[in-house]
From TrEMBL:
This is Peroxidase. Belongs to the peroxidase family. Cytochrome c peroxidase subfamily. Residues 71-337 form the Plant heme peroxidase family profile domain. PANTHER family: HEME PEROXIDASE, THYLAKOID LUMENAL 29 KDA PROTEIN, CHLOROPLASTIC-RELATED. The keyword Oxidoreductase applies. Residues 1-17 form the signal peptide.
Length: 541
């Protein structure tokens, strides 16, 4: 039983994407890359920045020394979610079904770590990286940033629309039941020993939810009464195995007062301690074993779900690319990431572009900030699309010329994705002529507003549809995209010589992106907007 209790849209589930021929842009793969590798520093992701995972003893849902950690909760949640898998009929697996009350309220899923985990993931999951992929990413970040090995990560999991069948063995059950449960999940008896030992490098068992296993500790340094699996419960190491073999372990599932619930003792000793002796004697073997077993755990998905190739970081990747029209000026904002670089190694960075008039433009980019991943093992250098490097500044362009594709020169080397460049889409964009008619707040705090959304569309492009996209969840808790069409204007409303306006009056205060269909392809902008934003000045002002 995986006990690290410390305690421990419908757009999600796109067709699989290949890493082998990957070019930017590829929205799903780019989002998975960002979730996986843009961990700390500039453009660092929410899981790292908000939860403070750089401190592995941090616990978001309790102050002081609780004895719990975010990392342990996330890893336990990932295993319990996966443990519903049945290799015979292909059902269950890592699909975020444990977010449903009917599943997480089962006796096998005791504790509040699942709720805690999905409270965090609800701020992370999006149209490209759903709840299941976000859960897998969370487990990877927890392992890697708390001393563990790199984990091969794939994306493309599909969020479940309903609970799965029960699947997690409980500590009071006998060895044969545990062996059968892990076999159903796809693991051999030896792998069962390894996976439990790997998972139990983090966390422990909490008295509140398991009073038949552990006692109250009355320890001011462990206010939530968590009896830990080893002496280094917030760091990845092989102490759980070393302490077990040496006889010094305090693991409550090995030396607990209730021998019926000493499931780790039965599991670890099931092969005469052969596996545990190996894991205890070699930190490198323990790390490599755990890297393999954790990856297999996270890749255990329902039949029919096709995962992507292993996600690797692009050497050069753009982020937050957004065109905006301001009367006679086109603005381009965004940043570019150079992987495994620092500001010093990148040197002077230039951005070149091909415009619609056959000319080539160029500018020197300013350093925006440094990023890091995997506990600082990898670094990245970020540059903004203007000489200051400010993430809030934009490059001013002639609308008629615009931009078709970008290229970069870093440390004297041309980066252009093998000659194809970095294609950008300036056929449509948000116009700063958008405005707010009115807004109000009721005594109950409800906000209402109405406004006009203006979209600038390049004259002459084969654009068949423009629409607002809002993200919500369907009745089964899956992420869906609601599209609201913007009507084609009956007469041209000129913005400038190159662009015309499409507009929509709306009373929605929901955040939106802008989608379009151009030459049979669909596109989406990246920046979330709302009529309540400062971009929407009062109409007529």
């Amino acid at each position: 039983m995986f006990f690290s209790l410390a305690t421990s849209t419908l757009l999600v589930g796109y067709a699989s994407a290949s890493q082998a021929q990957r070019l930017w842009p590829s929205p799903q793969l780019d989002a998975l890359d960002a979730a996986r590798f843009d961990q700390s520093g500039f453009n660092g992701n929410f899981l790292m920045v908000f939860t403070g995972l750089d401190r592995c003893d941090n616990f978001l849902f309790g102050g002081g020394s609780t004895g719990r950690s975010n990392a342990a909760d996330w890893i336990r949640t990932a295993y319990h979610d996966m443990a519903t898998h049945n290799v015979t009929d292909g059902t269950g697996g890592l699909d975020a079904s444990i977010r449903f009350t009917a599943e997480k309220s089962r006796p096998e899923n005791a504790g509040d770590g699942f709720n805690n985990t999905f409270q965090v993931l609800s701020s992370v999951a999006n149209r490209y990286v759903g709840f299941a992929d976000s859960l897998a990413v969370a487990a990877v970040l927890a392992i890697e940033n708390c001393g563990g090995p790199e984990i091969a990560f794939r994306g493309g999991r599909i969020d479940a629309g309903e609970p799965n069948a029960p699947g997690v063995p409980q500590p009071q059950e006998d060895l044969e039941t545990h062996i059968a449960a892990f076999a159903r999940q796809g693991f051999t008896p030896t792998e069962m020993i390894g996976l439990v030992a790997c998972g139990h490098t983090f966390g422990g068992v909490q008295y509140t939810f398991f009073p038949d296993i552990v006692d109250e500790l009355n320890d001011p340094g462990d206010t939530e009464d968590v009896a830990h699996f080893d002496s280094t419960s917030v760091n990845f190491d092989n102490n759980v195995a070393k302490e077990y073999i040496s006889g010094s372990t305090q693991n409550p599932l090995v030396v607990g007062f209730n021998d019926t619930t000493n499931s780790d003792k039965r599991i670890f000793g099931s092969d005469g301690n052969v596996t545990m002796n190996s894991l205890a004697s070699s930190p490198s073997l323990y790390a490599s074993t755990c890297a393999d077993l954790f990856a297999r755990m996270l890749d255990t998905v329902p039949h029919g779900v096709q995962l992507t190739d292993v996600i690797t970081p692009l050497p050069v990747k753009l982020a937050n690319v957004e065109f905006t029209m301001a009367n006679d000026t086109m603005m381009l904002g965004g940043q570019v990431r150079f992987w495994n670089h620092t500001e010093e190694s990148a040197g002077t960075v230039q951005m070149l572009w091909d415009d619609h008039l056959g000319a080539i433009g160029n500018t020197t980019l300013g350093f925006a900030g440094a990023g890091s991943a995997t506990g600082g093992k990898y670094t990245s250098a970020w540059y903004g699309f203007d000489p200051t490097g400010s993430p809030f500044a934009s490059l001013s362009l002639d609308p008629a010329a615009g931009i078709q594709r970008l290229r970069f020169v870093i440390d004297g080397k041309l980066e252009d994705q093998g000659g194809v460049g970095f294609a950008v889409q300036d056929a449509y964009m948000f116009s700063e002529s958008s405005c707010l008619y009115n807004s109000s707040v009721s005594p109950e705090g409800d906000v209402t507003a109405s406004g006009r959304v203006d979209i600038a569309v390049r004259n002459g492009v084969n654009l068949t549809r423009v629409y607002l996209e809002t993200v919500t969840q369907d009745g089964e808790g899956r992420i869906v995209i609601v599209e609201i069409d913007i009507p084609r204007p009956e007469q041209r409303i000129a913005v400038n010589s190159a662009y015309s306006l499409w507009n929509l009056n709306t009373t929605s205060v929901d955040e939106f992106t802008i989608g379009a269909e151009i030459d049979g392809q669909t596109y989406s902008t990246t920046q979330l907007r709302s009529v309540l934003d400062s971009d929407f000045l009062p109409c007529g002002a």
